């Protein structure tokens, strides 16, 4: 599968049963059933709970995590 994660195109080989939260580094999963929203990401601009989406469903999708929304620190 080939999603774009935080602006970078990626090639990922994942098992069909893995969730998107499983393959995204740094995405917190607090409940694993979608109730808390800690794993929320944007998928093509739509808010989704990554613990409920299979990773294989993200083929060709632009995924934006909180890391991409956070301003980059500028060193002096």
How would you describe this structure to a colleague?
By secondary structure, the protein is α+β, with helices and mostly antiparallel strands. Helix content is 11%, strand content 20%. The chain contains 2 helices and 5 strands. The protein has helices at 20-23, 66-69; strands spanning 4-5, 8-9, 40-43, 46-49, 62-64. The mean pLDDT is 92.
Average pLDDT over all residues: 92
Shape: globular
The main sheet orders its strands as: 2-1-5-3-4
Radius of gyration: 13 Å
Report the sheet-strand fraction. Answer: 15-25%
SS-derived structural category: alpha+beta
Number of helices: 2
Low-pLDDT windows of residues: none
For the record, give the distance between the C-alpha atoms at the N and C termini, rounded to a whole number.
Answer: 39 Å
Instruction: Please give the share of residues in helix.
Output: 10-25%
Instruction: Tell how many strands the DSSP assignment holds.
Output: 5
Major sheet: size, sense and barrel closure? 5 strands, mixed
Element-by-element helix/strand order: EEHEEEH
Q: Characterize the quaternary organization of these chains.
A: single chain
Summarize this, please?
This protein has 76 residues and is of the alpha+beta class. 11% of the residues lie in helices and 20% in strands.
State the main characteristics.
single chain, alpha+beta, five-stranded mixed beta sheet, 11% helix, globular
Q: Topology of this protein?
A:
Elements lengths: L3 E2 L2 E2 L10 H4 L16 E4 L2 E4 L12 E3 L1 H4 L7
Parallel strand pairs: 1-5
Antiparallel strand pairs: 1-2, 3-4, 3-5
């Amino acid at each position: 599968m080939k999603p774009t994660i935080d602006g970078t195109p990626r090639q990922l080989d994942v098992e069909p049963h893995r969730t998107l939260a499983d393959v995204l580094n740094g995405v917190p999963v607090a409940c694993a059933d979608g109730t808390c929203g800690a794993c929320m990401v944007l998928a093509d601009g739509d808010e989704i709970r990554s613990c409920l989406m299979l990773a294989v469903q993200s083929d060709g999708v632009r995924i934006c995590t909180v890391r991409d929304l956070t301003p980059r620190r500028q060193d002096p």
